[in-house]
Amino acid sequence: MHPLDSIASPGLWAATIAGLLALLAVDVWLTRRPHEVAMGEALRWTAFYLALPFVFFGFLWWVYGGTPAIEFLTGFVVEKSLSVDNLFVFMLLLASFAVPPALAQRVLLYGIVGALVLRAVFIALGAGALATGTWVFLLFGAVLVWTAIRVLREAGEGPEATIDVENMRTVRMLRRWLPVTTEYDGFKLVTRVDGRRALTPAALVVTAIFMTDIVFAVDSVPAVYGVTEDPYLVLATNAFALLGLRALYFVLHDALGRLRHLNYGLGVILAFIGVKLVLHWAHGIWSWVPEIPTVLSLGVIVVVLAAVTATSLLATRQERRSERRSRPGVGGEPLDERGDLVGNLVQRGEPGRGARVGPHGAADQSRDLP
């Protein structure tokens, strides 16, 4: 075994973890009272959390040079694009459990904290595996290529996404352990009914989000290790990408359904990074095998994301024009000109009854959740 190179000293690790905990404490304080998040509030915090990684990028460039700074920025872009896909599933889960709007941000915060813990565990496991030899790059590359093929196939099939929460293994297990109330009790995960402890629907949705985070970690951690081998930079990219998800959810809430080609882009990016990892492994054995530079990786990722965003918005606009020409509305009601995903696409039910999304948006795919 050989230790992985890292720019981080123990002091930098301690300062980074302390800063991360401070930001989480601020989020906990902001969500202490149930309230619906206004667009202005969401935009301000989204801008703040988008500015932070660029400040950190400048710090890395100034102190450690251009190479780790570019690796961090590339990894952040990869993680942020993958985290948008997380938001689609979070949206499905919140709709499936009929989470009240005033409680949504605290539920999302619970999910983000769980994701950070899981990413830290997966990053540590990945670092330990990489220390045993370069064969892990081949394994990570194969995982990413397989994931990319699955994502592209699901995007091409385009079925409506459904989450049947009643059949989720974790939900069934919790229901066997404790009774579950039908009503939310503020932020409480556990309450008392007739003197007995019972879970609230909030406990079920938080558990469901936590379990889906495991699925996302399997994809995202190898993807960032395909950009940098530094565990510190891998953790930093994941932390900065996840911290702003709570506010970004409310900013993109109505726009998520318009990114109908996003999964095509994510599939291409995952396949590209998978090939990059395989080439990196092969280069260590045969020196004549070329490697893909990090700067080129950043350029490819940015171009792919820009392209799928542009084609998504163009396709959505063209379809709306076609629908307005052919029919004034659905079921006698006018079409929503804003493309409100929750208003038009999510059919709400009782807590735990499930929800469907379709026919638009990158969420139009099957989801096998634990």
UniProtKB/TrEMBL annotation:
UniProt key word Transmembrane: yes
Subcellular compartments: Membrane
Topological relation to the membrane, as annotated: Multi-pass membrane protein
Record GO cellular component, one term: membrane
Transmembrane segments: 12-30, 42-64, 84-100, 135-152, 202-225, 231-252, 264-283, 295-315
Homology family: Belongs to the TerC family.
Region Disordered, annotated ranges: 318-370
Chief location bin: membrane
Top-level division of the source organism's lineage: Bacteria
Assigned keywords, A-Z: Membrane, Transmembrane, Transmembrane helix
Protein name: TerC family integral membrane protein
NCBIfam families: R_switched_Alx
